[in-house]
Amino acid sequence: xxxxxxxxxxxxxxxxxxxxxxxxxxxxxxxxxxxxxxxxxxxxxxxxxxxxxxxxxxxxxxxxxxxxxxxxxxxxxxxxxxxxxxxxxxxxxxxxxxxxxxxxxxxxxxxxxxxxxxxxxxxxxxxxxxxxxxxxxxxxxxxxxxxxxxxxxxxxxxxxxxxxxxxxxxxxxxxxxxxxxxxxxxxxxxxxxxxxxxxxxxxxxxxxxxxxxxxxxxxxxxxxxxxxxxxxxxxxxxxxxxxxxxxxxxxxxxxxxxxxxxxxxxxxxxxxxxxxxxxxxxxxxxxxxxxxxxxxxxxxxxxxxxxxxxxxxxxxxxxxxxxxxxxxxxxxxxxxxxxxxxxxxxxxxxxxxxx
Length: 355
Known about the structure:
Elements: E1 2-10, H1 14-31, E2 35-40, H2 45-51, H3 57-64, E3 68-73, H4 77-80, H5 89-99, E4 102-110, H6 123-126, E5 130-136, E6 148-149, E7 156-157, H7 164-179, E8 184-189, H8 195-208, E9 215-220, H9 221-230, E10 237-240, H10 242-253, E11 263-268, E12 273-276, H11 293-307, H12 310-325, H13 342-354
Parallel strand pairs: 1-2, 1-3, 3-12, 5-10, 8-9, 8-10
Antiparallel strand pairs: 4-5, 4-11, 6-7, 11-12
Helix pairs in contact: 1-11, 1-13, 7-8, 9-10, 11-12, 12-13
């Protein structure tokens, strides 16, 4: 099979972790005789520094011409600490989502037996956790207009906007995934306060009738935040709007014990983007200590969601699980064992795949 992917390393540890994911991708392609074409492009702070645009036209063209995008991370202290900066790296991420039509961010949250002791929750609460967060990505507060500040700078305003079409698209996707899992959907909103949430609930209640075999529950976002801590195993597929999803998925990510372990897929109209959920971690950049496993697991999602190659995705996950069992991990999860470098972990996993 011919696989054509765009590779966007981005900022901070992005280039290092992407390099390890590409080792796994290339190993899989060798093992299963796939023809791989991969092309790198600029995004984020590195793109601003080079051409003044966090998501250059050349990068967008490459993404549009590719079957999938493997993406590292965006963010730089240079821009975080400059309140007067007119262009920021994160604007590149928002532009990429909008232009590629990346309407759904999918984050599987699963626990690993060897990491249960690192979770802030008791082992009995998190052992066996396996749910999926689906976050709407192109609407809501992050894209609503008008947005800005008053002339004197003392008042700021944002607008949350959603259309029926945007809600229907993401809710139907949630039901489709739930149908392949444990057949339960949790719709998260704030319908007791927000007009947009009331539209979400109205549309979801209409769609719910089309899926009688799937259990549906509705939950206010504050209750969902508590439930994620009190009873995370109660969730199967959780779907919500952009800002709520941003917050809840970050909360859910710590259940596993390490941000460095969670992959994500952003499903799009034109192409799809696969990336770890952690940030650019600039403090570790260039030190060869960053955990590449979330990015490698994102590559596994890429094989499955972009190309329908389930066996290829499974062998990557098996390699990651084996690396953890063997203690071949970076310092963030190497409790009681000798930590290994980012590149050493990538080499080990690629070798495991090729066995």
